[in-house]
């Protein structure tokens, strides 16, 4: 969870206040539920260039596996 929070802070500086390790961020009125917070966090991670690189590599690996 620490790495996720670090990445989110890099993407959006105020994100640390939104996603907390104890999952209680929805109780502060920032989000309606824990699921909403997770959807938001995953959305921010998917916007990061590193995610696109990982996605491309997984696709390449799957293509190589299909060849064997």
Helix tally?
3
What is the terminal separation in angstroms?
Answer: 36 Å
Q: SS-based structural class? A: mainly alpha
Strand percentage lies at under 5%
Fraction of helical residues:
55-70%
Strand count, sense and barrel status of the largest sheet are:
none
* Count of spatially separate domains: 1
Shape: elongated
Order of helices and strands: HHH
Report the mean per-residue pLDDT as an integer.
Answer: 74
What Rg is obtained from the alpha carbons, in whole angstroms?
A: 15 Å
- In the predicted model, the low-confidence regions spanning at least 5 consecutive residues are none
Number of strands: 0
Topology:
Layout: H1 2-11, H2 34-47, H3 49-67
Helix pairs in contact: 1-2
Overview of the structural elements:
It is a single chain. This protein has helices at 2-11, 34-47, 49-67. It has 68 residues and is mainly alpha-helical. The protein has one domain. The longest helix is centred in the C-terminal third of the chain and has 19 residues, at 49-67. The termini are far apart.
């Amino acid at each position: 969870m620490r790495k996720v929070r670090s990445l989110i802070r890099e993407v959006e500086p105020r994100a640390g206040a939104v996603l907390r390790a104890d999952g209680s961020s929805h109780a502060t009125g920032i989000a309606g539920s824990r699921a909403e917070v997770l959807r938001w966090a995953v959305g921010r991670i998917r916007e990061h260039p590193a995610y696109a690189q990982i996605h491309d590599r997984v696709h390449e690996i799957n293509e190589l596996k299909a060849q064997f």
